Amino acid sequence: MFSIQQIRAKARQKLAETPGAYLIALIPVIIGVVIQTMNYAQSNTLALQLLNSPTPASYLVNSTAFPIVYGILADLMGLSISLALFQVIYHYRDSVSFKDAFTMFNHGRFGSILATYLLKTLFLFLWGLIAMIGFSIMVGGVMMSAIATLLNQATEDIMVVAGVMILVGLLIGIAGVALFLPQFYAYFLVEPLLFEQLAQDTYTGPFAVIKESRRLMKGYKMKGFVLSLSFIGWAILTALTFGIVGIYMIPYYRTSHIYFYQAVLEDRAMKENFFKGVIP
Fold first, then answer.
1. Do you know which InterPro entries this protein is assigned to (predicted)?
2. Does the residue 148 lie in any domain?
3. Which residues, at least 6 apart from 44, have a Cβ–Cβ distance to it below 8 Å?
């Protein structure tokens, strides 16, 4: 069985050997910093408008839609980075540059990549609905309690209802997370599988890629979780530096993800060959 430490060591070595590896995430990081600054200014503007006058519905829609659009763009740039690094690891190329954050958009099979991404995102959204509903109820209870206290209307009945909402919402949210995580890691290998199938011209559709990822990840979901967890420190540091550390962390994590895919394939092949040799 492979170790996460080995995977991360291989990723660091490959990045050190690859020209331009730490420039590949430069554009997404710069865009992320700009977006965070804009969101901060937008939040302050919205708060002032809520205090002084009714906020137009169009403003609320735009302030909600913009982060969603940016989230999709960030995901697609992340896919582009993974694709470029996959091509390096599998020797289709030997260097990368900052322009490769958009390499997917020029790919001849962009439609196939986009369809697979959208289907995976839809499935994960559906699996995460229970958690979202639960935590929304919990947040509603917290807001009810806070507003009632702020307006000096915190009656016993209101506080009881708010408390029940917080408790029930928390329990539903935890149950939803417990349901969501195994499914998230069942789809963990969708991207490298997709890239390999496109490279070998064996791609037959997004459902087939997702089904194969679920098959390969049986018995490896905890390993995938541990890999993600091992980057929690880098994720916190990236957040504290407004995303700047992402210049290092993003290619590091995505390279590790591809090596994890390789390790799963090799480990499964070794086990299958062993049982074929032992069991007639």
1. DUF975
2. yes
3. none
Nearest-angstrom CA–CA distance, 235 and 179: 23
Domain count, the chain: 1
Question: Residue 243 falls within a domain, yes or no?
Answer: yes
Give the Cα separation of 45 and 255 in Å (integer).
40
Q: Give the domain range for residue 251.
A: 4-274
The answer to whether the beta carbons of residues 98 and 20 sit under 8 Å apart is: yes
Residue 114 forms part of a structural domain: yes
pLDDT tens string, the chain, 280 residues long: the values are 789 999 999 999 999 999 999 999 999 999 888 887 776 666 555 555 555 555 555 555 555 666 777 788 889 999 999 999 999 999 999 999 999 999 888 888 999 999 999 999 999 999 999 999 999 999 999 998 888 888 888 788 888 999 999 999 999 999 999 999 999 999 999 999 999 999 999 999 999 999 999 999 999 999 999 999 999 999 999 999 988 999 999 999 999 999 999 999 999 988 888 777 655 4
Prediction pTM value = 0.86
